């Protein structure tokens, strides 16, 4: 309840205003949980470059210090090694909550979605910060509606192998709305569709990263199942623009943030081949359980209310991640954290 925190250790406090960031806009103090990860580090870059103060909370489960090393020494940047399943006290204006084991290889080991989200909502409530949850298109499960609109409730197996991720995010959305309705916390919910770009975790099982790394290593691309399942791939800078537009806007959401361009895995393999190496090959492997057959966002709501839409097509975006992957593979710098 919203009054319970008024006297104890986590009681509501005020904190000094920020130094102005420039004409007409106060500099904000912003927490990004999971900020050492793929999406988080790009978001941090954008927030720092527009003049805000950023605190990253990350336990380096899949994130890497290298993703942020260019910001070390910047007085507006701070990095805290911390697991969000434990409470934390900070005084901030906005919370972008991204921390989460987000790939099939990792998420089954750490159902941290729920506790981490609860703590960050508790923090938002105490300091009066605005809270943004990065949910996922996986809340739609193996969708029976195509493309998916935000009004669709989804088709999720509650006891399957990927349930801790899907259901964890669904619970995180529920908690977010409960804190909004019950404790008046200002919240925003993004449902992110498959995203790719530089700094993606190598070898974490996500398809774009797998295919690009495999072709650079001169290995065949592993197509799971018959390769006719579809996904819609969004370049990371488009996503970051959408997250900021959502945080700054007046609407709670949920909002689909994704690129509606839809590709089968065989088509994706073809684009990777054209982009990196025309001699690349594919091999078929058995598919994972409960793999959604198709996925494509309906983004009319974000277009209309956030004035946002992706700008970078798959053919434009893929080449932008190849150098980063090549360098990391050549340097053997494939670590899962430091
Ligand atoms: P990522 O694995 O690169 O980043 C996640 C970050 O969270 C990592 O830095 C990791 O170390 C950190 N983390 C994990 N558990 C933590 C914990 N308990 N405490 C503190 N830090 C923790 O993944 P990403 O692709 O950047 O995903 C970011 C967010 O976006 C996630 O919430 C994910 O569910 C969501 N999302 C991503 C995609 C995508 O395609 N990339 C799609 C849908 C949703
Ligand atoms: N919390 C936190 N930082 C804060 C305030 C709260 O980590 O600044 C955690 C707190 O430990 C609790 C969770 O957020 O586990 C939910 O907090 P809330 O105040 O909503 O719940 P309560 O403590 O009243 O059960
Ligand atoms: N996939 C594939 N080869 C791989 C990795 C994944 O064909 O090496 C397929 C996977 O079966 C799924 C699609 O690519 O149909 C997207 O998988 P990913 O794990 O990237 O994202 P998600 O399933 O969460 O959308």
TrEMBL record:
Pathway: Nucleotide-sugar biosynthesis; UDP-alpha-D-xylose biosynthesis; UDP-alpha-D-xylose from UDP-alpha-D-glucuronate: step 1/1. It is found in: Golgi apparatus, Golgi stack membrane. Keywords: Decarboxylase, Golgi apparatus, Lyase, Membrane, NAD, Transmembrane, Transmembrane helix. GO terms for biological process: D-xylose metabolic process; UDP-D-xylose biosynthetic process. Its cofactor is NAD(+). It comes from the Eukaryota. GO terms for cellular component: Golgi cisterna membrane. It is an enzyme of class 4 (lyase). Its EC number is 4.1.1.35. Residues 32-319 form the NAD(P)-binding domain. This is UDP-glucuronate decarboxylase. It comes from Populus tomentosa. The chain holds residues 93 to 430 of 430 of the full protein.
């Amino acid at each position: 309840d919203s009054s319970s925190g008024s006297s104890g250790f986590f009681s509501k406090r005020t904190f000094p205003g920020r130094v102005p960031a420039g004409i007409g806009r106060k500099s904000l103090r912003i927490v990004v949980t999971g900020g050492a990860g793929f999406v988080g580090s790009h978001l941090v870059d954008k927030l720092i470059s527009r003049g805000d103060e950023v605190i990253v909370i990350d336990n380096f489960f899949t994130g890497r210090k290298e993703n942020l090393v260019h910001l070390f020494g910047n007085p507006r940047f701070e990095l805290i090694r911390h697991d969000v399943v434990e409470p934390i006290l900070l005084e901030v204006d906005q919370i972008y909550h991204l921390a989460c084991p987000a790939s099939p290889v990792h998420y089954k080991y750490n159902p941290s979605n729920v506790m981490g989200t609860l703590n960050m909502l508790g923090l938002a409530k105490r300091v009066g910060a605005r809270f943004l949850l990065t949910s996922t298109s996986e809340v739609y499960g193996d969708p029976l509606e195509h493309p998916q609109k935000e009004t669709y409730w989804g088709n999720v197996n509650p006891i399957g192998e990927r349930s801790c991720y899907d259901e964890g995010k669904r619970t995180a959305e529920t908690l977010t709305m409960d804190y909004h309705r019950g404790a008046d916390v200002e919240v925003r919910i993004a449902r992110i569709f498959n995203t790719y770009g530089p700094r993606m975790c190598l070898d974490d099982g996500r398809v774009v990263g797998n295919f690009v790394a495999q072709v650079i290593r001169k290995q065949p691309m592993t197509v799971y199942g018959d390769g006719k399942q579809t996904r819609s791939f969004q370049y990371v800078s488009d996503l970051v623009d959408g997250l900021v537009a959502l945080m700054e806007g007046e609407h709670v959401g949920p909002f689909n943030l994704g690129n509606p361009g839809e590709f089968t895995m065989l088509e994706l393999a073809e684009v990777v081949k054209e982009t990196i190496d025309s001699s690349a090959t594919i091999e078929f492997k058995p598919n994972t359980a409960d793999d959604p057959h198709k996925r494509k966002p309906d983004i009319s709501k974000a277009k209309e209310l956030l004035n946002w839409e992706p700008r970078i097509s798959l053919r434009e975006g893929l080449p932008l991640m190849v150098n980063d992957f090549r360098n990391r593979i050549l340097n053997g710098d494939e670590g899962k954290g430091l």
